[in-house]
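User: Can you help me understand a structure? I only have the sequence.
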Amino acid sequence: MLKQRTIKSLTRAVGVGLHSGQRVELTLRPAAPDTGIVFRRVDLPQPVDIPVRVESVCDTRMASTISPGGDPGGPKVQTIEHLMSACAGLGLDNLYIDITADEVPILDGSSAAFVFLLQSAGVELQNAPKRFLRVKKTVELREGEGARLMWAKLEPFHGYKLTFEIDFNHPAVDATGQQVVFDMGSGRYKQEIARARTFGFTKDVEAMRSRGLTLGGSMDNAIVVDDYRVLNADGLRYDDEFAKHKILDAIGDLYVCGSPLLAAYTSFKGGHALNNRLLRALLADETAWEMVTFDDVERAPSGFAALAPAW
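Assistant: Let's start by predicting it. Here is the structure, written out as tokens:
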């Protein structure tokens, strides 16, 4: 039987929120089978649990934000996608995440630090079948026209493969790899995806800060690009880091469905909002998906039974 996973012991992290600039503490704790991933706002007078589900997503501007039942006026946790991406990369099904503010810390702008924290706590198999959401027919969303066109789709696939193409029409970004294809069954999430950092353009920073955004952003936790070049002294970690970060985000955005996907995901210029709408469109069509388990590990997609595939 392909089993569910949690962590063996608790682990902690401290950092600042990318948008809020607030200091925030995370405590990641093991959870029982079938719990799912649950954020808990422990800074409130009465702690509030926010299970990670598609319907919990209440805002997708700049990041993925969740609240109880998706209530935009309720307690929130912002910028969950990098931590969720790490959980997906390690195949974690069940986890409690205690948080002392309304935004997950940005750390170095990638998911690598979260992968390290979770792996340091140890990955533990649980005596319950791991449930996958298998896509049975293609679901596609397209938005905009001409230069504004963006699209994303999920297709049937025995495994989990992601393809992302970017098009920023910017000299520094255009000089890097524009398309990335990554197979989650390869076991190379940590090496090939996890270190890709979020990025921003100097021309956008002033406008965003005037709206109370990116207050915690710096070259320590983001790639910063002016009109012509990357400003970070150390340059890029991958020659296609921009496109790889978009895949990192997509892995996290899509993991809010509560189960790992068996699908091929392809996107052109998509983002948090389109990813969430794509998931909602998939789940709304009950003929397009099914939940499956693997009593016989040999019948599972290649690479999915390894204890810690990110490493």
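Now, to help you interpret it: The CA atoms of residues 6 and 94 lie 5 Å apart. DSSP finds seven helices and 18 strands in the chain. Let me know which part you'd like to focus on.
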